[in-house]
Every structure is written in structure tokens, then in C-alpha cells.
Design brief:
The protein has 15 helices and 3 strands. With 440 residues, the protein is an all-alpha fold. It has one domain. The radius of gyration is 25 Å and the shape is globular. This is Probable peptidoglycan glycosyltransferase FtsW. It comes from Pseudoxanthomonas suwonensis (strain 11-1).
């Protein structure tokens, strides 16, 4: 075996490391979720006659399944995932069609968002979020120069998002539809889309979203009750008014773990959509700041890892990190905003904390993807560091006899970090790395 082969073998043997900050933030949020689901769901479970720990057992079971999915994602090479990008897009549309199949789809309160898996129901949009982020990341890698330079390349992912949003609105699921549009816009900007060109679809689409929001009577009631929940405290403003009372009772240090009053069948969905209000009541302002701080750490670290990946020209990994960060950041912001009365009521769970099998499992899978991104980034950095000579051969001083010439150093193996050849953007402009939305 020659020197080059031995050096290549040594490089392949170099491993990475999963980011400890991501692990700690995710584990802390998951552990807090177990504690708060146990606290918030006891009264609800007993009222349904299902036993006090019914929802806790289910939540722990779904976390265990999510942990398995996370481990599988952590051990899967991203290049293998990228290979099936077109099949992933098809999978998004197939999943959103499943709730409409007789015998498989489940309708709850007039909404067809779930499929029946026998032991539990599964909300398909949670899987669509992860799969769509991976597909959009692969699209931005394949057409990253054209996205910045041409209209068709920019409009194609927007068109795909509009089709998915249309299918979500038919369920109906306005919250997830809006979230999907936000993820698409954010990833396009971080992928280098021309900002003035991007602003036109946004300006044209916002009035349409407003019309969709107000055309349905129940959505309009949510908006009006959000503006003044006390006007109809026992009607449209019932959820928000009780959530605000829970937040107010918590004050600085809370009433104590397990001592919430609002969770005792006053606050609807206390263990799912409004679990943050229970946290505020039992742990107070300090606990609220701690939860927000954990989400800031998780999202901020994901964005940092995505930035480092783009700098090393690992665009697919970087865009996945951006997409997952946008998803978790936007969803947690909306959920917290709803509980604090800053946003109209939407059915979005608090990631890793709220009870809900679909959300918990798919969020764990997304965390596994993030950890895989961090592992491959660390591995690439170590490989590049191995190739760089740590020291320069010493030069003999004039008054010293020159030593025997050193043995020739094997030529370094190049292109450890693959550089995708730049495609012509059509305007004769070069691309600067890392790339974000620009005005040129």
C-alpha cells in the first residue's frame, strides 16, 4: 500500500463527535416535558377515567420511539439521505393524502389530519415537516446558484410549498400551513435567494393568507378573542383567558410543581397546546425564562452549526440545520406567543415538551438529523486539520552544518471536503460563501 492509500485510509478512520450543546438542550427540554406532562395531565386523565398516569405513560412511550428514530438518524450518512431527494418530495404528497383514505384516515372535530395506526393516531403533517426540510435542502444544493439568479428556480420550491399548503388547508390545518410557508421563505433566504425578487411573492401572498384567515368564522372568532379575551370569557376567549390567569398566578417563582389550579379542568388542553401556561403557573417567571433559554440554545446552536457547514461547503448538511432550526424556532415562538396572548390561538405544540405522539417522535427524529449534521461537520474539520502540516521543516542556520535532506513528504490528499462545481448563474456573477439573501 502506497503512502497516498495509507493516508486516505487514515482519513476515513477519523470520526466525528455529536455536539454536546445540542444534546444537553434537547435532553433538558425532553426531561422537562416528562415532568410537566405528568403534572398537567393527571386531572385530565382522572376525569376521563383512564387512570392518573395515562398520558404520562403514553408520552414516555412516544419519547422512547422518538429516541429510536433519533439514533437511526444519527447513524445514517447524509449523502445516503440526499440520494433519495425526489422520492422524499413524493412522500410528502402521499402522506397528506392518507387522511382522506376510507378506513385509514381519522376525522376529529371536522378535521382530517390523522391516520389510524391501531395503537395510536398519527398526524401526518409532523412527518411532512421533516421530509420537506430535507427535500428543500437538497434542492438548494442542486440549484443554489440558479435560485439567486433566476425566477423559475426560486418559484419552484414556492410552488411546491403552495401545493402542500393547499392540501393542509383542506384538512384544515392553517397553523401548520403557515409554518410550512415560513420555513420555505427562511430557507430560501438563508440559501442565497435574491431578496428583492423574494419580496414580490411575499407581498402578493400576504393578502391571500389574511383572506384565508378571516373567511372562516371559527378563525375570525379566534382573532377577535385574541384581541380581547375578556369580552367573551366563557365563550371564544375561554382558552386564552384561563391561560393568562395561569401565567399571572405564577408571578416570579411559581406556585410550586404540581400546585397549578388552572390545570384542574379549567384550562383546556393543559398537557398539549397550553402546557406553557402550566409551566408559567407552577415555575413562575424564572421557569419561563429557563424554558425560553433552552430553546434559544437549541435553535442558536443549530444555526451556528449550519453556518459552519456552509463555510466548509457542506451545503446540504448546513441547509438541513437551517431548516430544523427555523422549524423548532418558529413553532416554539408561536406556541409560547399563543399562551402569553401575543398571537391568536393555533393548534401548535411546544416542541419536546407538549404531550402528543406525532410531534414528539418527529421532533426527536429532527434532533437526530441535527446531531448527524454536527457529527459530520466535526469529522470534516478533523480531516482537514489532519491534512494541514502542523509545522514547517526547520531551516539550517548559516553557522551550522546542513543536515541530510529530509525524506520527501507525501503529497496531501486533496478535496476531502467536496467542492461542488459552481453552475453558471446566468448573469456572470460569482457566488460568495457563506451565502445568504442578497440584493445583488
Amino acid at each position: 500500500m502506497n503512502d497516498l492509500s495509507r493516508q486516505a485510509t487514515r482519513l476515513e478512520a477519523i470520526g466525528g463527535r455529536y455536539d454536546p450543546w445540542l444534546c444537553c438542550a434537547a435532553l433538558a427540554l425532553g426531561a422537562l416535558g416528562v415532568v410537566m406532562v405528568a403534572s398537567a395531565s393527571i386531572a385530565i386523565a382522572e376525569n376521563l377515567g383512564a387512570g392518573p398516569f395515562h398520558y404520562l405513560v403514553r408520552h414516555v412511550m412516544f419519547i422512547a420511539i422518538g429516541a429510536v428514530l433519533a439514533v437511526l438518524a444519527m447513524r445514517t450518512e447524509l449523502k445516503l439521505v440526499e440520494k433519495y431527494n425526489q422520492q422524499l418530495l413524493l412522500c410528502c404528497f402521499v402522506l397528506l393524502l392518507l387522511p382522506w383514505l376510507p378506513g385509514l384516515g381519522v376525522s376529529v372535530n371536522g378535521a382530517r389530519r390523522w391516520i389510524n395506526l391501531g395503537i395510536s393516531r398519527f398526524q401526518v403533517v409532523e412527518a411532512v415537516k421533516v421530509i420537506y426540510i430535507v427535500w428543500l435542502a437538497s434542492y438548494l444544493v442542486r440549484f443554489r446558484d440558479e435560485v439567486n439568479a433566476t425566477w423559475p428556480a426560486m418559484l419552484k420550491p414556492l410552488g411546491v410549498a403552495v401545493l402542500l399548503v393547499g392540501m393542509l388547508l383542506a384538512q384544515p390545518d392553517f397553523g401548520s400551513a403557515t409554518l410550512l410557508l415560513g420555513i420555505t421563505a427562511g430557507m430560501l433566504v438563508l440559501g442565497g435567494v435574491n431578496l428583492p425578487r423574494m419580496s414580490l411573492p411575499i407581498v402578493l401572498g400576504l393578502p391571500l393568507l389574511v383572506v384565508i384567515a378571516v373567511i372562516e368564522p371559527y378563525r375570525m372568532r379566534r382573532i377577535t378573542s385574541f384581541m380581547d379575551p375578556w369580552q367573551d370569557q366563557l365563550g371564544a376567549g375561554y382558552q386564552l383567558s384561563n391561560a393568562l390567569m395561569a401565567v399571572g398566578r405564577g408571578e416570579w417563582f411559581g406556585v410550586g410543581l404540581g400546585a397549578s389550579v388552572q390545570k384542574l379542568n379549567y384550562l383546556p388542553e393543559a398537557h398539549t397546546d397550553f402546557i406553557f401556561s402550566v409551566i408559567a403557573e407552577e415555575l413562575g417567571f424564572i421557569g419561563v425564562c429557563g424554558v425560553i433559554g433552552l430553546y434559544m440554545l437549541l435553535v442558536g446552536r443549530a444555526l451556528y452549526i449550519g453556518m459552519k457547514c456552509v463555510e466548509m461547503r457542506r451545503h446540504f448538511a448546513g441547509y438541513i440545520a437551517f431548516g430544523v432550526a427555523l422549524w423548532l424556532g418558529m413553532q416554539s415562538f408561536v406556541s409560547i406567543g399563543v399562551n402569553l396572548g401575543l398571537l391568536p390561538t393555533k393548534g401548535l405544540t411546544l416542541p419536546l415538551i407538549s404531550s402528543g405522539g406525532s410531534s414528539v417522535m418527529m421532533t426527536c427524529a429532527a434532533i437526530g438529523l441535527l446531531l448527524r449534521v454536527s457529527y459530520e461537520l466535526e469529522r470534516a474539520e478533523r480531516q482537514v486539520a489532519r491534512l494541514r502540516p502542523d509545522a514547517v521543516a526547520p531551516v539550517a542556520e548559516p553557522d551550522e552544518p546542513a543536515s541530510a535532506p529530509a525524506a520527501p513528504r507525501p503529497a496531501p490528499v486533496r478535496n476531502v471536503v467536496a467542492k461542488t462545481p459552481a453552475k453558471s448563474p446566468g448573469r456572470g456573477t460569482s457566488r460568495v460563501e457563506p451565502t445568504f439573501g442578497g440584493f445583488a
